[in-house]
Every structure is written in C-alpha cells, then in structure tokens.
Amino acid sequence: MIILLVLILFFQFVFVTPELVVSAEYDKTYYARVMYDNVFLYKSPLNIDDYSNTFFILPRTYFVQLIDSENEFFKVKYLSTTGYVKKENVQTIVGTPITPYLDNISFRIYSEQSRSLRTEPTEQAGSASLITYIPLYSRNLTYYGKIEGQSLIDDRTNIWYYCKYTAEKDYYGYVYSDFCDQMTKFSENTENVSYTTNPSFTETKPSKSLKMENNSTKIIIAILCVPALIFVFMILKSSVILNKEKRNNKEIKEY
To answer: Residue 233 pLDDT more than 80?
Structure first.
C-alpha cells in the first residue's frame, strides 16, 4: 500500500505538476477598448473596408478580447464573433472590464422587408445568401453592430444590423434595419480603466522550446527519482521480511 502511494505521488509530480505550472503561468487574457467611431471588425487581416471583408462596426467605448497579433491587426473576439481589428483603433487595458461588450441589446422585426436573415448585407445573391426567415414581430434578436450595405428601398437607409437570432438554435447574420424597431436603449461605456502598452502574445502561449524544456525536466526528475524509489522499495521489503521472521520466531517460541 505504501509503495503504491509513493508511485502515485511520483507520477503526479513528474507528469502532472509541471503542466499545471505552465497553465497557471501562461493563462493570460487581454482586452482593448474601441477608441473611435466607425471601427470595423474585419473578417480577415486585410485593408478591405467593404462588407465583403467586414462583419460590422464595433461600438465605441466598448471592448474586444485580444487573441493574437498579426502585423497591423489584432485577432480579437467580440461577443461570439471572432475577427480582426486595426491596432491603431484600439487601446489595450489592464485587467478585465466589468462590461466588455454591448450585450443583451434586442430589437423587433415588424415588416416582410426585414424578415430575411442573410450572410451579407444585401439581397443581390438571392436565396444563396438566405440563412432563414424570421417571424414577424419577433424579438429573439440580439444586436451586435451595424454595417452599410444595399438599400432595399429607394431613398431609404442602407444600414443593416448584424445580429444573433435565437430559435431552435442560434443563427448569425444580417437584417435590413429600415423595418426594425423597439431596440433596447444603450449608451457609451463610461467604465474607468487603466491603459497599457500592447501585450506580447509570446507570453500567452508556451513555446516549443519551453515544452521541450518541460519534457527534459520530467525525464531528469524521473531518472533521479528511480534510485530513490528502489531504495525505498528495498527498505520496505527488508522491513516486511524482518517482521515476517519475528512472527515466525514468536510462533516457534510459543509452540
């Protein structure tokens, strides 16, 4: 029983503990505030500002979670959407904001013109861009942001809403804003935060060299521990033999 306990502790220390240390040391999350109006959440890290490469305009004063860095862009997450934002348009903060996103903002569809949830803010692709139809007067719509697209009616707006529609599952896409109303009121995020310089993302991911160092460390520890385990085993074995001999001698004397 003692030998089994020693072996369990040995394997836990050599093969589990270092990974826990690495996870604790490198599990860091960064956020950045959207500093200006008309800041796009891009689909790819390219300087293409039309809706072929943009999801929507991020709400100023709110935040994006930083994932990685690619040249002049950050790879980010806003609510459930992952994309890219230009570094020049955001400022990294210290810690995690209390209200990072413009969340739980809903609105209503009240006309046939806005029932079509589409993959892009236009009807030019016809049924190819149609995701699903939204029931009239539905409020199961969460607003993410807006973007300029096709004006479906002459001399009317060309603004579309990017949103989440919740039915039997969650759908994500665009609806024409001209026939949407009853949107939840929202305002700027006035949360006070401390700003910092851009983070180094090499700190958030264990490098290959670090992983090799961890593996090497494990091997060295294992090699050094083997003699100790053998020594402990021999002592325990000797103790068992002695105890057995004492019992035998005692039984002989009693006999």
So the answer is: no
